[in-house]
């Protein structure tokens, strides 16, 4: 939380609310803080046995269903404002859909999302003796960060939400999500050794991941810098050789 507040204070004190990107001086200060936040989030995921990317992909499917582009394009209402409209829209009654003059592109995510009890695709492995052990949680790579960035770009563009995603707005939203993640962590006993993380915890990790990736993309920090320059170079080199 302290690290998140440091990032927010930099944006709040030096950037206007509608600034689209930060200047070089601000970025130089923010990059190491964002890297520290990335490492902290990965650390939480590892300690709770939560697969970040699996959790994030699952959460994004739910979010896309909550915010249909045909109904919320150019609007910043909370998803509950669309509940009744969405029911009418899905049933074929489109009279209440906002008439804003735009043809909203679809991100193709209108399928129902299956509820899962775990946020690790193979969360528990059974040893030869029959006992269970936590599966190894993969650390997100540069490729994962780029996948997250690109999907969120498509998601936001389909809903005309780029106008709302200023650095300050994203940081404020992310700070709230970190608080919710802290609440979920607080529910765990100090001696808990999870073989699979609770779905509610995974959802909060996924939310924090979304806002961190989106902030780095919109502010100019760059998602590929989150893993550090050395690791990013290794990841890029490895991807190029494949």
Subunit arrangement of the protein: single chain
Number of strands: 2
Average residue pLDDT: 74
**SSE order, as H and E?**
HHHHHEEHHHH
Largest sheet: 2 strands, antiparallel
* Integer-rounded radius of gyration: 19 Å
Structure description:
- The protein is mainly alpha-helical and 242 residues long.
- It contains 9 helices and 2 strands; from the N terminus they run H-H-H-H-H-E-E-H-H-H-H.
- The chain has helices at residues 2-14, 24-48, 52-66, 69-72, 83-90, 142-158, 167-186, 199-219, 229-241; strands at residues 124-126, 132-134.
- A two-stranded antiparallel ribbon has the order 1-2.
- Helix 1 (2-14) runs antiparallel to helix 7.
List the helices and strands and how they pair.
Blueprint: H1 2-14, H2 24-48, H3 52-66, H4 69-72, H5 83-90, E1 124-126, E2 132-134, H6 142-158, H7 167-186, H8 199-219, H9 229-241
Antiparallel strand pairs: 1-2
Concise summary:
By secondary structure, the chain is mainly alpha-helical.
């Amino acid at each position: 939380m302290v690290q998140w507040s440091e990032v927010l204070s930099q944006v709040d004190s030096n950037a206007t609310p509608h600034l689209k990107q930060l200047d070089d001086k601000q970025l130089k200060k923010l990059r190491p803080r964002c890297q520290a936040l990335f490492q902290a989030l990965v650390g939480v995921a590892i300690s709770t046995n939560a697969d970040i990317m699996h959790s994030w992909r699952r959460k994004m499917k739910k979010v896309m269903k909550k915010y249909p582009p045909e109904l919320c394009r150019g609007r910043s209402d909370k998803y509950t404002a669309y509940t009744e409209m969405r029911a009418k829209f899905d049933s074929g009654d489109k009279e209440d859909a906002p008439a804003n003059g735009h043809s909203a592109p679809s991100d193709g995510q209108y399928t129902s999302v299956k509820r899962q009890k775990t946020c690790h695709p193979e969360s528990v492995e059974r040893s030869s003796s029959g006992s269970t052990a936590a599966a190894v949680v993969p650390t997100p790579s540069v490729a994962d960060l780029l996948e997250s960035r690109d999907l969120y770009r498509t998601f936001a563009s389909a809903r005309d939400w780029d106008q709302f995603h200023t650095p300050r707005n994203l940081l404020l939203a992310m700070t709230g999500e970190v608080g919710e993640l802290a609440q979920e962590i607080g529910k765990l006993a100090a001696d808990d050794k999870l073989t699979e993380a609770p779905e509610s915890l995974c959802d909060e990790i996924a939310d924090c991941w979304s806002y961190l990736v989106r902030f780095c993309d919109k502010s100019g920090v760059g998602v590929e810098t989150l893993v550090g320059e050395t690791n990013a170079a290794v990841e890029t080199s490895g991807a190029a050789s494949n």
